[in-house]
Specification:
about 0% strand, mainly alpha, about 80% helix, Serine Threonine Protein Phosphatase 5, Tetratricopeptide repeat
Length: about 250
């Protein structure tokens, strides 16, 4: 009985193998192919990282030697062949500074915007956003600065963003918003500041007081000194205008 039972088991195994053996072999082949493919992919990625790193170093050396054309060539190769590595973003930040030094502000803006568009929430993306805002200010495009920075919570970049926003609002003549932005930037940690607090205070002090008073919201109906001063200036101007009108009328008569 025992021999017969083992024979039955062998027959069952042969039957199972004849039915499912091809699937087992196929699974093994696929598994081996996946392992080989993964190893090859990892090797290719590592090779690309090394090549991109070497190209980035060549770019930095060209920049240090003031060879802009060579730096441009290395940057173009990085952008076209190694976009899936971290080095193109770094290269764009470097080239943006070079372009600004050479008076190519639009090229700098384009390079920085590419970094922002590619990865807006990364540290490099936020740094590029901060620098792009300053380039836009240089180009006298304050509204674009507001559009670029207003909806962003830059965390470590909050104070820098706020200061640049204040500059943009001041350019737009929105002095109350400028003062608010500068004041927000002043809240930067005193232990590790990212902005110049004394410069910020100077910017606040330089804002037109009358414009701030007129733009500020009304409180309980009691005008403060700045508002009263603004009213007096307006009334004085109107009175002088009326006197000039009356004098002119008398001369006509």
């Amino acid at each position: 009985m025992e021999d017969l039972s083992e024979k039955e088991q062998l027959d069952q195994m042969r039957s199972w193998w004849s039915e499912y053996g091809n699937y087992v072999i196929g699974g093994i082949v696929i598994g081996i192919a996946l392992i080989v493919g993964f190893n090859q992919w990892g090797s290719r990625v590592k090779t690309q990282q090394v090549e991109a790193s070497e190209l980035y170093e060549s770019l930095r050396e060209a920049v240090a030697a003031d060879k802009t054309d060579d730096a441009d060539e290395s940057a173009s190769e990085l952008f076209s062949k190694y976009e899936n590595t971290a080095y193109p973003a770094k290269a764009r930040l470097v080239m943006a500074r070079v372009y600004m030094d050479k008076g190519r502000d639009q090229d700098a803006a384009d390079a920085l915007r590419a970094v922002v568009d590619a990865d807006p929430d990364s540290e490099l993306g936020l740094l590029a956003r901060s620098r792009l805002a300053k380039v836009l200010l240089y180009q006298e495009k304050p509204q674009e600065v507001v559009d670029l920075l207003s909806p962003v919570d830059g965390q470590a970049f909050t104070s820098r963003f706020s200061e640049t926003l204040g500059d943009a609002y001041a350019e737009l003549g929105e002095f109350a918003k400028a003062k608010e932005a500068f004041s927000r930037a002043m809240e930067d940690s005193a232990s590790s500041p990212t902005v110049d607090r004394s410069l910020l205070q100077m910017k606040i002090n330089d804002l037109p007081e009358i414009a701030l008073a007129v733009a500020s919201p009304e409180g309980d109906g009691t005008a403060d000194d700045a508002t009263v001063a603004a009213s007096e200036v307006v009334e004085s101007a109107v009175s002088e205008n009326d006197e000039e009108t009356e004098s002119g009328a008398e001369k006509v008569e």
